[in-house]
């Protein structure tokens, strides 16, 4: 299967990842143009805190909202997620009713020892990494909605991507613990209130948390389904990049994220009048051969280095024609 075949499938998510500076943003941008031209309503999202899809298109998507990309045939939208503004999802789910002090005082009632383990959790709300987790959760929300046909994710360099892959589990377990805690508070309060003859209002927070948990579960399944998700590893033909691609591939396997495509970018083009270039090219082609052997079941797409930076729609279309031919 080639990238062109891949784009003809009805994928919900295409994740593009790899080592720093290898061309992830350029490839993700070119792929998103190809999808839009195919007639798919496409959203290109950057989860890299150091956004660069604006730079790649030479347009401004920094508003933190979904913006239509002008100059591309079909429907292409771009979004650079601002992690700081995505905290609302959890806050919304937890509701204003969550009261850590109330919870702590309940914990001090004799007989509540059984719930002690979870009171550790409220000491770190939001827990570390929550901003990033919620940015990702925001994207995952698109998994079970029809607003876009395909979401292309331009990720940050490898380490960050690997953290991203752990996020559904992280959120699932965190929300699971919050649910337990909220249910406990809600039941205890209901008991106390009904004892004193008060009204017991329904706690919406639990319902919201359950909905959020369900959404994450759907997204997790979508991410593991090869009919719906493909991860494209981008690398360059150097040993350092190859080793990193191998590690990334292993991690993807561990997380059951489908990955059949590798793009080897920035291969030195042939230039007989330049001994340095020819030497680099020879080295690149030898490494490319190594990549083919190391990934015998992958489709490998090669891209030569352009003689200038890839910037703006015209250049991105040129890159698109190379990777989709
Ligand atoms: N085939 C190529 N030929 C020439 N320049 C390229 C090629 N691919 C990418 N570039 C250039 O290399 C630089 C890095 O590319 P890009 O931003 O796409 O990489 P990245 O992997 O997203 O980087 P980061 O890890 O910083 O997010 C950019 O200036 C881009 O225009
Ligand atoms: Mg990038």
Automatic annotation (TrEMBL):
Domain of life (superkingdom): Archaea
Q: Which Pfam families match?
A: ArsA_ATPase
Q: Keywords on this record?
A: Coiled coil
Sorted alphabetically, the Gene Ontology BP terms of this entry are: tail-anchored membrane protein insertion into ER membrane
In its keyword annotation, does this UniProt entry include Ion transport? no
- Which parts of the chain are coiled coil? 202-229
Q: Gene3D superfamilies, alphabetically?
A: P-loop containing nucleotide triphosphate hydrolases
Per UniProt, what is one GO molecular function of this protein?
A: ATP hydrolysis activity
Q: Please name the InterPro entries in this protein's record.
A: ArsA/GET3_ATPase-like (IPR025723), ATPase_ArsA/GET3 (IPR016300), P-loop_NTPase (IPR027417)
Enumerate the spans annotated as ArsA/GET3 Anion-transporting ATPase-like domain: 12-323
The protein's name is ArsA family ATPase
Q: Which organism is it from?
A: Candidatus Heimdallarchaeum endolithica
